[in-house]
Amino acid sequence: MKKVYCGYCDQNVDYVITSQEIKTKVLGVEVEVKVKEARCKICGEVVNVKQITKSNEIAVYDEYKKKVGLLTSGEIKEIRGKYNLSQTDFGKILGCGEKTIVRFENGGIQSKSMDKLIRLSAKRSNHNFLAGVEGVPYNAETIKDSDYNLVTKDIYHTKYLCETNMSKGWVKTNGKEQNAAC
């Protein structure tokens, strides 16, 4: 285990990892989650370990996602991994970039429209269909026009939000602030 700097001891120290339940709010929604803490072995104060901080952030945002009915970071990664897709290829299927997929898999909160697209991508039979919105033909024999139109509307709505609000980063939808990243 690497040593980390303790500001109270003013030196690099060994640490122990403890756990605790916390309550916090994410976008106005209260969540309760178990997080890890690194504590200095000398003085017992909390020290910063980047991996633990990142793990805690993902845990908090995933708990929020569960509470509001969105896929968690792990579920998104699992869908992508189910088909051995790179983040780049998965992004192409969804009509967004690789960095967006990285954000979602590392705790970033997707919009409800993007969540629907990711859920649709869980079936390989939908991959050409989803990519078809970007110019790859889809199989009209297996996809009803009504389904195509519904998903196309969601895709274009999500892309519109991204293109028009990317500089702001957040938009209000149904009176709630949501991340507009796609």
Calculate Rg over CA atoms.
20 Å
Please list the strands of the largest sheet in the order they lie side by side.
Answer: 3-4-5
Mean of residue pLDDT? 79
Query: By helix and strand content, what is the structural category?
Result: alpha+beta
Weakly predicted, low-confidence segments: 133-143, 164-176
Portion of residues in helices?
A: 40-55%
What portion of the residues fall into strands of 2 or more residues? 15-25%
Biggest beta-sheet profile: 3 strands, antiparallel
Number of H/I helices:
7
Could you state the order of secondary-structure elements as H and E? EEEEEHHHHHHHEE
List the helices and strands and how they pair.
Layout: E1 4-6, E2 11-13, E3 15-26, E4 29-40, E5 46-47, H1 50-68, H2 73-82, H3 87-94, H4 98-105, H5 112-120, H6 127-132, H7 145-165, E6 170-173, E7 176-179
Antiparallel strand pairs: 1-2, 3-4, 4-5, 6-7
Molecular structure report:
With 182 residues, the chain is an alpha+beta fold. It folds into 2 domains: 4-68, Ubiquitin-like (UB roll) (Roll); 73-179, no CATH class. It is 45% helix and 22% strand. The chain is built from 7 helices and 7 strands. The strands form 3 sheets. It has a 3-stranded antiparallel sheet with strand order 3-4-5, covered by helices on one side. A two-stranded antiparallel sheet has the order 1-2. It has a two-stranded antiparallel sheet with strand order 6-7. Helix 5 (112-120) crosses helix 7. The longest helix has 21 residues, at 145-165. It is elongated and about 60 Å long. Mean pLDDT is 79; it is low at 133-143 and 164-176.
